Amino acid sequence: DDSQTPMLLKADIAELQRNLAIDAGEFQVLIPAEAIRGLLSPFNSRARHVLVSLLRGYSVGMAAASAGISNDSVLRWGRSEPSFGQAVQQARDWGFRRTAERELQRRAMAGSDDKASGRLLELWVKREDAAYREKSQIAMEVTHKAGESLTRLVGGYVEPETP
Fold first, then answer.
1. Does the structure show a pLDDT above 80 at 63?
2. Do 51 and 18 contact (CB within 8 A), yes or no?
3. Residues 103, 74: Cα–Cα separation, whole Å
4. Who has the most CB within 10 Å: 7, 39, 77, 148?
């Protein structure tokens, strides 16, 4: 029920902050509690539930399901309310990076015991975040999308005959 949006408790924000932290020995990444609170506070119960799930590393589809809504609802809310769309992107980025960076680091430190799952992890990370893709792959995607746009823009145009 969206009319019963729970308070953002300090303990809940601290738990999310600990969950998002990345400790790599000589450095630690810690997202400020104020940033997490600022991300969540403008939104109602279901929207906030989606954002918290994304911060925990869920996909958008799983975050939507955990809030009892469809993936399409999350996308529709993001288009109709740009601030929610931006919050979804930020929460997804923080949650995904936490999950991916921890797992990448764990596997890198484990050695070569499990090469097959390492390759699957690589493919998953590249699919989810363009920052992990090779530049040639990104260039091909941009070229393809530009070609599609050009086709839609001038599709069906016929050069007039000159007398």
1. yes
2. no
3. 27
4. 39
- DSSP classification of residue 112: S
pTM: 0.66
Percentage of the chain beyond pLDDT 90 is 34
Of the candidates 132, 135, 37, 48, which has an alpha carbon nearest to the alpha carbon of residue 88? 48
> Is the separation of the CB atoms in 94 and 55 below 8 Å?
yes
Residue 140 C-alpha from the chain's centroid: 22
CB atoms within 10 A of CB 51: 27
Mark 20-50 as b/e (b = at least 16 C-beta within 10 Å): beeeeeeeeeebeeeebeebbeebeebbbbb
The residue behind tokens 């995904």 is 96
CA distances from 119 to 58, 95, 126 (A): 21, 21, 11
Cα–Cα distance for residue pair 36/34, rounded to 1 Å: 5
Residues across the chain: 163
Q: Indicate if the pLDDT at residue 28 is higher than 60.
A: yes
Distance CA 110, CA 22 (A): 17
